[in-house]
Amino acid sequence: MRLTKYQKDALQEMSNYGTGKAANLLNRILHKEIELTAPELHIIVPKELGRYFGGPKNLVVCMFAELDGDMQGIIALLLSQESAKSLAELLLQKKKGSLRILEPEAQKQLAQITKKLSGEYLRVLRSFLGVSVRMTRPRIAIMYGAAVAETLEAHSFTARIKKIALLETGFSAEKSNIFGDYFLMLGIRSLPGFLKAIERKK
Amino acid sequence: MKQIKLEAGTSVLLVLPDERYMETLSDTLLGLSKQFKNTCYVTLNTPYVSLMRLFTKRKIPRKNVLVIDAVTKAVQAVTPENDHCIYVESQSSLTHLSLAITKAVETVKFQVVVIDSISTLFIYNNPKVVERFIHFIVQKMRQHNVALLLVAIGGNENNKELKQMGMFVDEVVHLD
Prior knowledge:
The complex is a heterodimer.
Chain A: H1 5-30, E1 35-36, E2 40-44, H2 50-53, E3 59-69, E4 73-80, H3 81-91, H4 104-129, E5 133-135, E6 139-144, H5 145-153, H6 156-159, E7 164-173, E8 178-187, H7 191-201
Antiparallel strand pairs in A: 1-7, 2-7, 3-4, 3-5, 3-6, 4-8, 7-8
Helix pairs in contact in A: 1-4, 3-4
Chain B: E1 11-16, H1 21-35, E2 39-43, H2 48-57, E3 65-69, H3 72-75, E4 85-87, H4 94-107, E5 112-116, H5 118-124, H6 127-143, E6 147-153, H7 159-166, E7 171-174
Helix pairs in contact in B: 4-6
């Protein structure tokens, strides 16, 4: 499946709008300025996931949720250990540098914020495009950056599809030392319905 | 490369450099596979699929390895059936891990248990709780005459805790 420039731009714009809404929500929760990079769209085969996730050789904190309904896919939020702790400190209203471990309450808060941010992102898609999407409860894992791509490649969702639309957005709250990446992975089969909805809005 | 002397009923804490962790670990595993036939491998930061790719790439025999995987279930709700892997619910639950390891060594005659890596445990748990867990596992392996290799990532982060861990094991090995 080849996307026209218009379709690519529309998908990126949609993602921009969704992550923008999610960033505003994070800003309201944390009372911190959140900066986003422009979303990047990559149409790839599962084997190419390593190009986008395979970078860090150190341990990263990942939050995953699966999507179902009109769109099938995976949402992934990746943070360095330090960023995850800083974000959890803000969410738990703890002093900067006071959180030494990702205790159960911190894990719960990180999963909840992933749910809230993704919920906001998906709400934009639902209301703007009229698509129906459900999301599973986010799960948290710490793993080697290089292992993230292989894990996603072997995921039951990825095993069923030939091509993936990967939308990647970087976010940061520089003053709080939080840097992360937000990924939306969609099966290429989800795209025609998605693109039709965009066409209708044209 | 420095060799690790691991014998039945003994325990070694292996501290590996962060930047070359995977390479150094796979060299060590290759060495261990020549010494021990049956291995129980507890992975706390690399999912089973990824780990098996590493084994294949570095020609580490996979046949007699049972993996206890504490990562995959965090990524996908439904895990594939696999005779060579036990998926445990959470990376942070030391109770689940203790039960899985104990059951494995009591059911199959493993010669060596590898825990990779205890550094992950320090991210989720209080050092005192990790100490109690390690102490329990070291005792349990001694009791079953199984060799135990505890892997940790070097660096400044958990130096104090790793020193403490060193008191429970027979030897601490730092590889550069």
